[in-house]
Input
Amino acid sequence: MTWSIIARDKATGRIGIAVATCNFAVGARVPNIKTGVGAICSQAMTNPFFGPRGLALLTAGATAEDAVRMLMLSDGGRDHRQVHVMDREGRFAAATGAACVAWCGHLARGTLSIAGNMLAGPQVISASADAFEAAMSKPFAQRLIAAMKAGEAAGGDKRGKQSAALLIHDGEDSPFLDIRVDDHADPLAELERLETVSRERAIHARRFGPSRDNPIGLLDRAALDVAIRSSIEEGYT
Output
């Protein structure tokens, strides 16, 4: 009922997930990232335990392949699940249960993994991968959205569309971006609009907030406004 991309941006080291589906609030259920540990998407008949359990396995040192194997083996509903994982070394693994609705499958290529089920066909994930790789000149968030839009143009979720989400982590424990479109006639277009809005101020303000290196952040409002304006002029994305 969904397709998603997990990817790593070589230039910035950021890890991101973009996902879309014809169901409500996909961003609350499918994408999971922990900085310095890895990323997991649980989909099809989503198991909400896969995210936290999988990240705990990766934190303990499991590889992506180990995490997928252990998650699926421990779940009596495994035939109805789909999961794909990236570990801290950038390795990917995936599994699609035998009862997942066609078309269903997975593709891993370089720094990306794409998995989907109940799709119009395998062209959905191949188009997404091609679009991501063709958009190297764009900022990471825009590349992820471009990948999803290409998959939608290739047929997407064969039932239609309802929600989408974008989750990106950098070196901090909190997300660089966490944007969710829970119910919309054109969720990927709305996701794209919200990502544009984020670049007007939000990602720049976060840059000067509390961080690992500076747990307090910049508190002087006048100085903060100057720093944000400089970041905008610099073209930080």
Q: What stands out?
A: The chain has a mean pLDDT of 97. The longest strand covers residues 2-8. The longest helix spans residues 140-153.
